Amino acid sequence: MLTGIIVKGIGGFYYVTTDAGLIECRARGIFRKQGQQPLVGDKVLIKRTTEDPTKGSLEEILPRKNQFVRPPVANIDQLIITVAAGQPEPNLLLVDQLTVTAEMAHVKPVICINKMDLDAKMAEELASVYRQVGYETLLVSARQDSGTDALRRILQNKTTAFAGNSGVGKSTLLNCIGGSFGLETGSLSEKTQRGRHTTRHTELFPLPFGGYVFDTPGFSSYESVGLVPETLAEYFPDIHRHADACRFAGCAHMAEPDCSVKAALEDGQIAKERYESYCTLYTEAKKQKKW
Q1: pLDDT for the residue 175
Q2: Residue among 53, 47, 4 at smallest CA distance from 26
Q3: To the nearest whole number, what is the mean pLDDT of the chain?
Q4: What is the 3-state secondary structure (H, E, C) of the chain?
Q5: Distance between CA 236 and CA 11 in Å, rounded?
Q6: Exposed, middle or buried: residue 36 (CB in 10 Å: 0-12, 13-18, 19+)?
Q7: What is the pLDDT of residue 197?
Q8: Residue 192 has what pLDDT?
């Protein structure tokens, strides 16, 4: 049997990259009986057919490091959360939702601020918010091929997914750093300032300098499965580092007195935008818990 990685799945066929090349596989029926679904990014064992060595059957899914529901992918090392310095306007709540997604799955979040050439001041202000958290933060311009060397270094020998709003330039960045992906890119709608979705299915691309990168449709929302308000602060490192000093155990950092998180906010140790995102997500998680 061969060991490989699923790089694409379409119409019941799974394309597995191995030392023997790319093998087109069908999954065994046992996966369906066991309620298992092979995912792009899965490390698997396959058996080639005797008639055609380019075809085979998927025999076993090896243990996963992590997995996501939307999009259905597995074994991500890091999530490059991409935001534009204008066009479209930055949605920091979405960025923070995605950092929570990454933190919950034990995936490294990296903030990538693209289109820095449009508004350098905005780009620096965004960067300061997330560098204060402690997240690795990149300033790039895919159009000018600026900052992309640092992005390549981060991607090297890792399995990475890009996430963010449509129109922030994820596919353009992938084409810029990969050179041969040929991914379709979309323009912004003049009326809505939103990008047109250009990715049709999930695919894992090998990088010329080592590693893999997902081109993933739908990775613009966050996973709230298992998120409860009492543990939300654990996924905000900038808030969590101050939480132990609160007067009351179980402090929600919302309206309680002698809250060290709110004191840190007033001192500028926590960005106002991050705290607002925390409050919004806390309220949403509390509503979900009631249901």
Answers
A1: 84
A2: 47
A3: 88
A4: CEEEEEEEEECCEEEEEECCEEEEEEECHHHHHCCCCCCECCEEEEEECCCCCCEEEEEEECCCCCECCCCCEECCCEEEEEEECCCCCCCHHHHHHHHHHHHHCCCEEEEEEECCCCCHHHHHHHHHHHHHHCCEEEECECCCCECHHHHHHHHCCCEEEEECCCCCCHHHHHHHHHCCCCCCCCCECCCCCCECCCCCCCEEEECCCCCEEEECCCCCCCCCCCCCHHHHHHHCHHHHHHHCCCCCCCCCCCCCCCCHHHHHHHCCCCCHHHHHHHHHHHHHHHHHHHC
A5: 39
A6: middle
A7: 41
A8: 33
pLDDT at 214 (0 to 100)? 85
- What does the alpha-carbon distance between residue 270 and residue 248 come to, in Å, rounded to a whole number? 20
> What pLDDT sits at residue 287?
86
Q: 223 is written with which tokens?
A: 């996973």
User: What is the CA angle 12-14-15, rounded to 5?
Assistant: 150
With a cut of 50, list the residues of the chain below it in pLDDT. 183-199
Q: Which residues is 6 bridged to in the sheet?
A: 16
Torsions phi, psi for 186 (to 5 deg): -120, 150
